[in-house]
Specification:
32% of the residues lie in helices and 21% in strands. The chain contains ten helices and 13 strands. A hairpin with a 5-residue loop joins β12 and β13. The two termini are 32 Å apart.
Length: 275
């Protein structure tokens, strides 16, 4: 199975947790690709995911299956050659958009599962990964909130959340989807730029059940839990954002102990990596 993550050094906590969760729920070889970059921007320095973290993941993966691997891909040149100019200073960091350059990396396999770093695997995900996607650019799950407000067809909730996407890069290269998304992100300022671009321009996508990208509350059938911002209505209307690496808040605010074994290993690993 091939899995893609994108981001700078700030994704390392979530990256480690997410990969550990994948390891718990598959015996198949896992090939982890991490697209990152090293760049100085007006908003500050973008530092890459560290080689130490990649080496740890590679060793940890190989301990379970010697055919598994973790590699770091420096996407700095690709990004600088076609930067998302209109969205460089939005609240969504430029690194969020690195997935839109995956079609230009020959080392990335044609079938690859993209995951945000705040996605945790809870069950065997092979049915999602191995599903039929011939003729589809990508497969994903409707956005919990966005499906009501952003859609091409008034009667069809087809607006996808981009945190869990099964990509068919062969089809994406053929249709030019990501190339067109990069052009749009360069020309037009958007809310959630890469997600908006993908939804606006994708013509061949497959909608999947909510269990493969649960964005609100854990359910028995949940395969991937995505720790996004959600609305809560008691005791007052407010938003709630808790990430997997915020362990105390996961316990206290979400009342969630589902991943304690993974979080325990993550804590030990990051303590060692950070000295």
């Amino acid at each position: 199975m091939n899995v893609l993550y994108c981001g700078d050094k700030n994704i390392e906590d979530g990256l480690v947790i997410s990969v550990l969760s994948l390891l718990k729920h598959t015996s198949e070889p896992l090939n982890i690709f991490v697209m990152t970059m090293d760049l100085k921007l007006k908003t500050g320095r973008v530092s890459p995911v560290s080689l130490e973290t990649i080496r740890y993941l590679d060793n940890r993966l190989k301990r379970q299956n010697d055919k598994s691997s973790a590699v770091r891909i420096d996407a700095t040149e690709l990004f600088c050659a076609a930067p998302p100019l209109a969205n460089m200073e939005t609240r969504f960091t430029p690194c969020c958009m690195l997935r839109l350059y995956a079609d230009q990396v020959s080392d990335i396999p044609e079938r690859i599962l993209y995951l945000d770093n705040d996605v945790v695997c809870r069950k065997d995900f092979s049915s999602f990964y191995h599903q039929e996607i011939s003729g589809c650019e990508l497969a994903g799950v409707p956005d919990y909130y966005g499906k009501w407000f952003f859609r091409k067809n008034l009667f069809h909730m087809d607006y996808m959340n981009s945190g869990v996407l099964l990509l068919n890069l062969a089809c994406i290269r053929e249709t030019g989807l990501f190339a067109r998304c990069r052009v749009l992100c360069s020309a037009k300022k958007m809310f959630m730029p890469d997600q908006s671009a993908i939804n606006k321009l994708a013509d061949h996508k497959k909608l999947c059940p909510r269990a493969y990208n649960e964005q609100r509350r854990l359910h028995e059938e949940t395969v991937f839990q995505h720790f996004t911002t959600s609305f809560r209505f008691f005791p007052w209307v407010h938003t709630l954002t808790v990430k997997p690496w915020q362990i105390e808040q996961v316990h206290e605010k979400l009342k969630l102990h589902e991943y304690d074994d993974i979080l325990q290993e993550y804590t030990a690993v990051m303590t060692e990596l950070r000295g």
